[in-house]
Every structure is written in structure tokens, then in C-alpha cells.
Write a structure and sequence with these properties.
By secondary structure, this protein is α/β, with parallel strands linked by helices. The protein contains 20 helices and 30 strands. A seven-stranded mixed β-sheet has the order 5-4-17-16-18-19-20, with helices on both faces. Strands 7-6-8-11-12 form a five-stranded parallel β-sheet, sandwiched between helices. The chain has a four-stranded antiparallel β-sheet with strand order 21-22-24-25. It binds 5'-O-[(S)-butoxy(hydroxy)phosphoryl]adenosine.
């Protein structure tokens, strides 16, 4: 086979139709309905998006829908709107005034609920606070907080006054905060004294103090009291959240902002190690997150929707805060860890709040599998009607477990493929319309035109692995990389004028997409280019395996050899016999050529705080090197030491 193709070896053939009673009440109730919408979005994109966008409020209506001067795009260019107005005012001053917008559950068990009217008032008040500290439209504001409602209020207030927020995940260390604040040249940092995480105190304000020793652009901070640990307070620079709010008016009129007004910068990792500041703007992002939330989650007024992501990641931006509020939905937000005080916490929350829609990540799902079904089964999950997955390819076994143990075989699963750069879901089922296959993110959302390309830019055939490219602009796409236009352009260089996602994928005979993973996670063994995710998936389909990560190390004989790092389910322990079984299993699932040269058992795998396995570190370990790489995003550094002494 050619060196330039990616061989895709998944053999999944199960198909699940949308449950009839679900489909009957769904916003998109049939495959035909989806096909019609999709066809219209492809044939008449401007009419389609213009019509969709007019469902939202525009302070000044747009006359122009799309300006595409590849790779630069403008959506609804001459229109003026306000995202926070659409997310709050329209509901707070209408029928949803007293409907819960945000239900918040603290890690220690405290609870707070904000109705639309309350969330609107708080956001207006905080908008006035920002203005009183001299924040102007276009100024950058860094938000370094835990999962508290005030994080959402801060984001919404920035959006409301036209300030550009950059949310920095609360798990980052002081150095990472410093680099992001400096890159964005933030004027203000909003933080809290501390945050709770797995029963421990995370001293956020202390990190900010250290970071700000080297951040000349920051003039002030606002500090929310959450954990009441002692903190240093710098007179003139630091302000108490509660004090500022007490003195602020609750009336604020949302200004009309240009559709292309910058909304936020969100830092995401690239291949080079230096984070990229992905910039999103107002109108297109608003329309994209609104419509995907409505149709992919099939949001109804009675739903209690819970996305378990952190607001520090794009999923938290688009699908905890903006998308759900634009739809007038009730969103749940949980502060803490899934296993605090014990591994049943998520299921307890679902039972307590009668959650109907649950959106989480494969890494979490595999952790639940490892922790055991008992934790799930002792709770009443009958309120659930829809499950979602995002963040990485979900292996069919985890998908099946999710469907059976959490969804009791009655909830459709939406496996949603998208990226920080895309702003909103791109390839995903509509649960009432699209039959699903475990491990496939299925079909493109309206207006999204994904293609599988060979290296030479020709289109791959059915089931032929290749590079996932989007060849048309979509409303919620990023507009640039902050202060690094060259990095923006580099996404459109490999296939001129088309967006290269960095992912490998294939499209099957039914047109379904199967994302294999980042192409930098593609390995070449004895002439076969394979997505490590597929070998991992084969390993995980063995009854003893909880999680697996496969990397390549240089090998004199074959060029490179595969090393599999494997964690086992609670009741299994490592043994030479099990190693042989696993190798046979891979040979059987994929083929002998895909058998790892070595299997290393571990207690846990090194992961980024967003749950992605850090293959770079494992690669170093597999090659016998001590890791030189950047470990600032590693969730638990001790994991690495443990694997290092294994074998
Ligand atoms: C990368 C984007 C999307 C928000 C969270 C991650 C992988 C994401 C899926 C999925 C297969 C997926 C891709 C993508 N990915 N969702 N459903 N199936 N892979 O955002 O940090 O920007 O990562 O995550 O590799 O390129 P991100």
C-alpha cells in the first residue's frame, strides 16, 4: 500500500436506529428531514444560514450573509447583535423569566440555582463592574476560575460589553497562566481565592499572584471568595468580587456589536508546544452554537442538560454557557471531580437533578468502566433520554457500555466531532434522524462540507483512510490565531484554501465518518500507517483492559515498533499469560502486523487536564528516554514516575 494513505482497520458493523418514541418528538424527526436541511445548506448556503440567523435577535439586521476570501471569512458582516442579549435578555424578559438557566452543584454538596432573570441581573451588574474598572470593547480579560457560576457570569459580561475573554483552565500552573495572559495582553484577571478539586484546595489566587509578577499589561484583578483560604491582597490592584457587585447597578443595556466583533480567545495546544490563541467572533459563533445545541441535543424546554466539560475548554464555552443559554435551556454545572467523594458522584447528580441530556468524554466513560457498573446501577437514571460524547474517538466497546449501562439501551448516543478551531459541532448525528454506529461520528452537520483527502489532494474513496479536510467556510469557524496570522494560514496551506483539521479519518460505504485521531498519532509499522486509536480500541475490546495507549518507538529491524501501555479493570492483574492473550487479541481484531512489540501494564496513563493521553511522554518512555518535553498540562505528574519504574 502507498505510504501516503492511512489504513483504517476498524470492523464495526452494528447499527442502531433512533428509538421510535424519541424520533416522534424530535426536532429533526427523520433521515429525510435531515437530508433536506443538509441539501439546502449545501445548495443555497447563504439562504440557509441567513434564514437560521434571523431566528436570533439582531440590533441591526444583516444584509450580507457570507464573505469568503479564502482563508478569511466574515459572516453576517454588516449586522449588529449582542450574544449576551440573545442568551439572557430575550429569555429573562419573556416566558422563561423564572425558568432555571443554571443549576450549580458544588463539589462539597452545596447547590445554587439561577433563573434566567437572576442570571441576567447578575450579568448586567458584572458588566457595570467591568466598565467601572475601565474595561473597553476589544480589551482582553483573563478568567482563571474553577467551575463556579461566576465564571459563566464573567464570560457573559465580557461578551455583553464587547470585551474579549480568555478563559484559562483552573488546573493550569502559574507559568501557563503567565504565558497566556501575556500573549493576550490582558488588562484584567478574574479569579477566586481557591477552588475545590477532589476534596483538595487549589490555590488559584496564589498562582495569579506569582504569574502577575511578570505580566505588565494587567492593571487589576477581581477575586471571588469561594474557599475562604487566606490570600494576599494587593491594594490598588486586587478587588473583591462581592464588594464591587454590591456597589454596581443591575441595569445595563446591551450595546449593538458588529457581527465580526471578537468574542474570545481560547488557547489550545499545537504540535510545537507553544499554545495557540484561537480567536472566535460574535455572530457566526452565536448562530453555530445555538443551532447545533438545538438540533444535536434536541433541546426541549423541559430538559435538564448537563455537559461535564470544564469552562476552561471549548466544550465548556460552546456547550455549557453559550449554546444552552441561547436556546433558553436549563444547564447544570458541576464544580468537582467525578469520583469525589466516590465514583458514583455523576450518577448521584443525574438522579438528584433528573438530568435528561448528558454530555461527557470517552476518557471519563472509560474511567467509569474501570470503576465498575455497581456505581452506576445503584442510581435511578431513568430521567436520561440522550447521551453525548466528545473529545476523542470513542472506542466501540466504551460506546456499547455507555449505551447499555448508562442509557439502558434506550437513549440515543450523539458522538460529536469538532475542535476548538471549529467552535461548534461539525460531524455528529441528529438523534431522532440518524442511525448510529458505535465509534462513528456519523454525518456532517448542516453547512459542513468534510472531505477525506489523500496526501496529493485527491479525494479518497469509500473506506480509504485519509486526511480530514473541510472545504467550505462555516459560521462558527475561528477567524485567526491571536497575533499569529501565519499559524492561522498554516491550517489552509496543505490543501490551498481548504481547512485541514489535522485528523485522519475515513468515510464508509454509507457516507459515515470514522475519525481515527490526530495524524500526529498515526504510526507506521512495517509499511502500514495505522491510527494508534484503532489498536487501542482493539485492546480495550478485551475483557481485562480498561484503557490503552499505543505509541511507536524506533526499531532497528522494522523502523518502528509499537509499545502498548495498558491499564486493567479493577478485578484483573498483570501476568505474562495476559500479555500473550492481548497480543493474540490484537492479531485477531486487526492483524498480526498490528501486534505491539511490547505491552506495559500501568496503574494509570498520563493525561492532559482535558483528558487526552499524552502520547509524546509515552513515546519518550517507550524509547527509553527520560522525558524532556513540556509537562505543564499533565493532570497528575506522579503517573509518569509510576510508569517509568514499571516493566
Ligand atoms: C480534537 C480536537 C471538540 C471539543 C473538545 C476537544 C478529537 C474531538 C472527537 C470525536 C473523534 C474527536 C479530534 C479533534 N476529537 N471530538 N467525537 N471523535 N475525535 O477540542 O482540544 O480542540 O481537540 O479532538 O482529534 O481534532 P480540541
Amino acid at each position: 500500500m502507498s505510504d501516503h494513505t492511512i489504513q483504517s482497520v476498524s470492523k464495526e458493523s452494528r447499527v442502531f436506529e433512533p428509538p421510535t418514541d424519541f424520533a416522534k418528538k424530535a426536532r429533526v424527526p427523520t433521515r429525510e428531514a435531515y437530508d433536506n436541511l443538509y441539501r439546502q445548506s449545501m445548495e443555497q448556503p447563504e439562504e440557509f444560514w441567513g434564514e437560521q440567523a434571523r431566528n436570533l435577535h439582531w440590533h441591526k439586521p444583516f444584509t450580507k450573509v457570507l464573505t469568503w476570501d479564502a482563508p478569511h471569512v466574515k459572516w453576517f458582516e454588516d449586522g449588529k447583535t449582542n450574544l449576551a442579549y440573545n442568551a439572557l435578555d430575550v429569555h429573562a424578559n419573556g416566558a422563561r423569566r423564572d425558568k432555571p438557566a443554571l443549576i450549580w452543584e458544588g463539589e462539597p454538596g452545596d447547590q445554587r440555582t439561577f433563573t434566567y432573570h437572576e442570571l441576567w441581573r447578575e450579568t448586567c451588574r458584572f458588566s457595570n463592574v467591568l466598565l467601572s474598572l475601565g474595561v473597553s470593547p476589544g480589551d482582553r480579560v483573563a478568567i482563571y476560575m474553577g467551575m463556579v457560576p461566576e465564571a459563566a457570569i464573567a464570560m457573559l459580561a465580557c461578551a455583553r460589553i464587547g470585551a474579549v475573554h480568555t478563559v484559562i483552565f483552573g488546573g493550569f500552573a502559574a507559568e501557563a497562566v503567565r504565558d497566556r495572559v501575556n500573549d493576550a495582553e490582558a488588562k484584567l484577571v478574574i479569579t477566586q481565592d481557591g477552588a475545590y478539586r477532589r476534596g483538595q484546595l487549589v490555590v488559584l489566587k496564589e498562582h495569579v499572584d506569582r504569574a502577575l509578577e511578570h505580566c505588565p499589561t494587567v492593571k487589576s484583578t477581581i477575586v471571588l471568595r469561594r474557599t475562604h483560604n487566606p490570600i494576599d491582597f494587593k491594594e490598588g490592584r486586587d478587588h473583591e468580587w462581592s464588594e464591587l457587585m454590591r456597589n454596581a447597578k443591575a441595569e445595563h443595556e446591551a450595546p449593538a456589536l458588529d457581527s465580526e466583533h471578537p468574542l474570545y480567545i481560547l488557547y489550545t495546544s499545537g504540535t510545537t508546544g507553544k499554545p495557540k490563541g484561537v480567536l472566535h467572533t460574535t455572530g457566526g459563533y452565536m448562530v453555530g452554537t445555538w443551532l447545533t445545541t438545538r438540533d444535536v441535543f434536541d433541546i426541549q424546554d423541559s430538559d435538564i442538560y448537563w455537559c461535564t466539560a470544564d469552562v476552561g475548554w471549548v466544550t465548556g464555552h460552546s456547550y455549557i454557557v453559550y449554546g444552552p443559554l441561547l436556546n433558553g435551556a436549563t444547564a447544570l454545572m458541576y464544580e468537582g471531580a467525578p469520583n469525589h467523594p466516590d465514583p458514583s458522584r455523576f450518577w448521584q447528580i443525574i438522579e438528584k437533578h433528573k438530568v435528561t441530556i448528558f454530555y461527557t468524554a470517552p476518557t471519563a466513560i472509560r474511567a467509569f468502566v474501570r470503576w465498575g457498573d455497581d456505581h452506576v446501577e445503584k442510581h435511578d437514571l431513568s430521567s436520561l433520554r440522550l447521551l453525548g460524547s466528545v473529545g476523542e474517538p470513542i472506542n466501540p466497546e466504551a460506546w456499547m457500555w455507555y449505551r447499555r449501562v448508562v442509557g439502558k439501551d434506550k437513549c440515543p448516543i450523539v458522538d460529536t466531532w469538532w475542535q476548538t478551531e471549529t467552535g461548534a459541532m461539525m460531524i455528529t448525528p441528529q438523534p431522532g434522524a440518524i442511525s448510529t454506529k458505535p465509534g462513528s461520528c456519523t454525518l456532517p452537520f448542516y453547512g459542513v462540507s468534510p472531505k477525506i483527502f489523500r496526501e496529493d489532494g485527491t479525494e479518497a474513496g469509500p473506506n480509504e483512510g485519509g486526511l480530514l479536510v473541510i472545504d467550505r467556510p462555516w459560521p462558527s469557524m475561528f477567524r485567526t490565531v491571536w497575533r499569529n496570522e501565519d499559524r492561522y494560514l498554516s491550517y489552509f496551506e496543505k490543501f490551498p484554501g481548504k481547512y485541514f483539521t489535522g485528523d485522519g479519518a475515513r468515510r464508509d460505504e454509507d457516507g459515515y465518518f470514522w475519525v481515527i485521531g490526530r495524524v500526529d498519532d498515526v504510526v507506521n509499522v512495517a509499511g502500514h500507517r495505522l491510527g494508534t486509536a484503532e489498536i487501542e480500541s482493539a485492546l480495550v475490546s478485551h475483557a481485562a483492559v480498561a484503557e490503552a495507549a499505543v505509541v511507536a518507538r524506533p526499531d532497528e529491524l522494522t523502523g518502528s515498533a509499537l509499545v502498548a501501555f495498558v491499564t486493567l479493570k479493577g478485578n484483573r492483574s498483570p501476568s505474562p499469560e495476559l500479555k500473550i492473550q492481548l497480543l493474540d487479541h490484537v492479531a485477531q481484531e486487526i492483524g498480526k502486523f498490528a501486534r505491539p512489540a511490547a505491552i506495559r501494564f500501568a496503574d494509570a496513563l498520563p493525561k492532559t487536564r482535558s483528558g487526552k493521553i499524552m502520547r509524546r511522554l509515552l513515546k519518550d518512555l517507550a524509547s527509553g528516554n527520560t522525558s524532556q518535553g513540556d509537562t505543564t498540562t499533565l493532570e497528575d505528574i506522579s503517573v509518569l514516575a509510576k510508569i517509568g519504574t514499571e516493566e
